[in-house]
């Protein structure tokens, strides 16, 4: 009986201890304690996450991290970036090396259900395509039978290519696999492959890196669905909701006509949707464990989704990617956020 009692006490103490550890390891508490958000980004992809000439990280994925820092810490600059290859990214998030993975990563069933992580939403709707030299004389992906194709390892592109060639008459190809996007570009430029394949957004970004970008073209076919978005570790619902509603706040800001330049003036707005988003009416930031100006900080310091898109990959960037399906739902696109209410 004594042994059973002692065993029960030991089990209770273990559970209590585990609960304390879990509470102490809350991502929100950890971020507040260290004073910055640790963000996993790519190893260099213009428009999404790439250091500029001064070493300052820029891009859509970077701005998601900056927005989270603005929401949680009131300062979009309080982010430390960890450059990760496609192979490294999931382990870095699982191990706690980063608080957020914001690295042009496709949301799939396998990744969502078996890697101990959760996608918070879609920040960019994409699809896989093919980049070729114009001198190859190819106008369609269906003309690529027998081609050598440069592919980055650890990505969804490998399976997508295999599926596409198999589904189109069993076409043959030779994969030329690299670990990083830079290596893939160099392989394409050096002639190790005829074609470079990746998400179309990445193809436009990688094309900019070519010594003669005008000699390359992206073929018209889009062979897959690639919803790209940030991910967090499973088991921390509060952090998941903070990151998710950070993305939603930028989308709702664009829909409401809020920008980084007009948000101060909009604090006097009578529009109830605007007032709720800016923390002037319920629900307050406490529902997320944040202060009431969490969304204001995001909009003021980072901008609306439209601003983030335009300056990084859209009309205000070298990439000049059309909004297309990444436009708001009321402007012909897929982008839609639940209301702040």
TrEMBL record:
<dbReference type="Pfam" id="PF00497">
    <property type="entry name" value="SBP_bac_3"/>
</dbReference>
<keyword id="KW-0732">Signal</keyword>
<dbReference type="InterPro" id="IPR001638">
    <property type="entry name" value="Solute-binding_3/MltF_N"/>
</dbReference>
<comment type="similarity">
    <text>Belongs to the bacterial solute-binding protein 3 family.</text>
</comment>
<feature type="signal peptide">
    <location>
        <begin position="1"/>
        <end position="23"/>
    </location>
</feature>
<feature type="domain" description="Solute-binding protein family 3/N-terminal">
    <location>
        <begin position="36"/>
        <end position="266"/>
    </location>
</feature>
<protein>
    <submittedName>
        <fullName>Amino acid ABC transporter substrate-binding protein</fullName>
    </submittedName>
</protein>
<keyword id="KW-0813">Transport</keyword>
<dbReference type="GO" id="GO:0006865">
    <property type="term" value="P:amino acid transport"/>
</dbReference>
<dbReference type="InterPro" id="IPR051455">
    <property type="entry name" value="Bact_solute-bind_prot3"/>
</dbReference>
């Amino acid at each position: 009986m004594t042994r059973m009692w002692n065993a029960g006490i030991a089990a209770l103490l273990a559970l209590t201890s585990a609960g304390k550890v879990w509470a102490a390891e809350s991502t929100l508490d950890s971020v507040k304690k260290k004073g910055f958000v640790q963000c996993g980004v790519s190893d260099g992809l213009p428009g999404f996450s790439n250091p500029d000439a001064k070493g300052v990280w820029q891009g859509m994925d970077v701005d998601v991290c900056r927005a989270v820092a603005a929401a949680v810490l009131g300062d979009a600059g309080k982010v430390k970036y960890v450059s990760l290859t496609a192979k490294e990214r999931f382990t870095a998030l699982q191990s706690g090396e980063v608080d957020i993975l914001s690295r042009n990563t496709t949301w799939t069933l396998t990744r969502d259900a078996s890697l101990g992580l959760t996608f918070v939403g879609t920040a960019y709707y994409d699809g896989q395509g093919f980049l070729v030299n114009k001198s190859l004389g190819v106008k369609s992906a269906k003309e690529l039978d027998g081609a050598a194709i440069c592919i980055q390892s650890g990505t969804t592109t490998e399976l997508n290519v295999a599926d596409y060639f198999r589904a189109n008459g069993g076409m043959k190809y030779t994969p030329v696999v690299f670990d990083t996007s830079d290596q893939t570009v160099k392989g394409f430029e050096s002639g190790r492959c005829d074609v470079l394949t990746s998400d179309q957004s990445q193809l436009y970004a990688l094309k900019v890196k070519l010594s003669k970008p005008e000699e390359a073209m992206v073929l018209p076919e889009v062979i897959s669905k690639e919803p790209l978005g940030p991910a967090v570790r499973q088991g921390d619902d509060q952090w998941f909701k903070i990151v998710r509603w950070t993305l939603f706040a930028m989308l709702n800001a664009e829909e409401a006509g809020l920008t980084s330049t007009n948000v101060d003036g909009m604090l006097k707005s009578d529009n109830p949707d605007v007032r709720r988003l800016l923390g002037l009416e319920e629900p307050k930031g406490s529902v997320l464990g944040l202060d009431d100006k969490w969304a204001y900080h995001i909009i003021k310091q980072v901008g609306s989704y439209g601003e983030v898109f335009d300056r990084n990959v859209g009309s205000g960037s070298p990439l000049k990617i059309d909004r297309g399906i990444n436009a708001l739902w009321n402007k012909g696109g897929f982008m839609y956020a639940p209301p702040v209410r």
